């Protein structure tokens, strides 16, 4: 009876708490005003569809902590009264705010109530937040407008195609119409200028405009063909055959690139300087600068200018700081900027989301039977006997690269899993038949039909139905990067007797000739340490759960990923002369950045993974942390390390998963130098075809 009473009391408390939480109004915060860094500024609140400020009366560091955490930072460093970051405008929403510091939102802190204040804007409060962001923090926009987007939403403007272009995608020319009071209305062409056309074209993903026609009472805007010819005409067949021409402009403009984004036209901004790729600090980063980047890459205007490494952290140098653009520059490098990035870290990497043309790809694919819109059996729309029908995709060789393309095509972010059986998802029975087989993707395609596949000649022995391909998607992904400098600093040779290598032999960590040796012989091992950082937006976790891990009796540990890294020694022409591999028997947080807690520890059969902002270190002196070079002759070679080589786990960027070093082996010693992470230079592959005779010693 006492138990029942306690249960009732607990349930009642939970109900009261839930009701209390639901009664708190939903707000959104931003930092505005005269500021230099993205983590400081005047604190403003969006409430009742209006931005307003907060009075400094009774404000405290505890309230600042709550505000900064709500904004995605680890906490507050300080707060400032008396409008230090400039006076705001409009309403003063909050006054006499009293927080304990444990609240999840400023809305939970006691105050006079929203809009009840006797303050003036000369008392607007400001905060300085901790520069470090909460790992994996998700910014949830609960308001009608996003503080980082243009105020007018694209959905309220449309280009209605002329009758002769009704079936063309994308819509690149037509009459401009604006939605007002639920009805689409025309725009008079009086005082209409090319700048207006440029804005509309930019909102629809096109980098430029062409002369418009004023022969109608409505504005006709054709796309500037010489700027983006791949999208103007369906006759050129670009979108029917392959999307590669879409990137033609990008390849001609190698000074800027985007990395870490889930969809085309978004990512962390990186610029090329002296052959080395680096990032852009987010100080003063805004939509004008972001729009220059988007148009430079062949897209339209910027939809969002993102700060605080919201699309992941880069590696290497920070090349640009305090970028100041007019919005009409041809390249980001034409804008004014500060070369001195002192004080900027990769936690301040700038990013963009560009407006891109609506190609209609999403309408030709769907996920069916899943528990939520982010998962399900993959079903594609295809033409059969003169009509369009839905069907499944053959799951043979279906993997993460194919799943990535599906999630991108649907606009659902990154793939988190690729499934070769989908019997647990009851899809549309009328779509059970396989309509696509032999799908092989590189992972960068914009839609599944752009990947290699069998076409009309379907070959799928397993059939569809329960064996159809499936995916699950996520808006965030991890990103693993190897510390190349540590590899270079820790390489050395060891001659180890065979009697001490029996476990390594059992786990195939030695070359094939080792099986013929007796216990009295030695193997020559090229040893080095590897430190693997997770600089993405979500934790790196093994694909398999505890129940599917493999137990290895000799070393007496589980392998959560059977092949986590490949270690190869290559000749100068790329031929493999020796190899090794490393299973993830202990994937854990060895160390983390300041303010980040370790989540994964291997001891006692614990959870394995690498937290965002942490790294896992495999020391040079543990088993299998080597390449067996016993049979290698003296000469010049390339040491190559590849993380997650089979793409078992999804990442936001696979281009930085490999590292290469130059090596010279004289039969007794080895020199390793010029270690580079993939994607860090203008052309990584060009660094290695030949090698000079001059050694660069540390």
Automatic annotation (TrEMBL):
Record's keyword terms, sorted: Basement membrane, Calcium, Chromatin regulator, Chromosome, Copper, Disulfide bond, Endoplasmic reticulum, Extracellular matrix, Glycoprotein, LTQ, Metal-binding, Nucleus, Oxidoreductase, Repeat, Repressor, Secreted, Signal, TPQ, Transcription, Transcription regulation
EC number: 1.4.3.13
BP GO annotations: chromatin organization; collagen fibril organization; sprouting angiogenesis
Entries under SMART domains matching the protein: SR (SM00202)
Domain SRCR, residue spans: 29-130, 159-206, 256-355, 365-474
Family membership noted in the UniProt record: Belongs to the lysyl oxidase family.
Name of the protein described by the UniProt record: Lysyl oxidase homolog
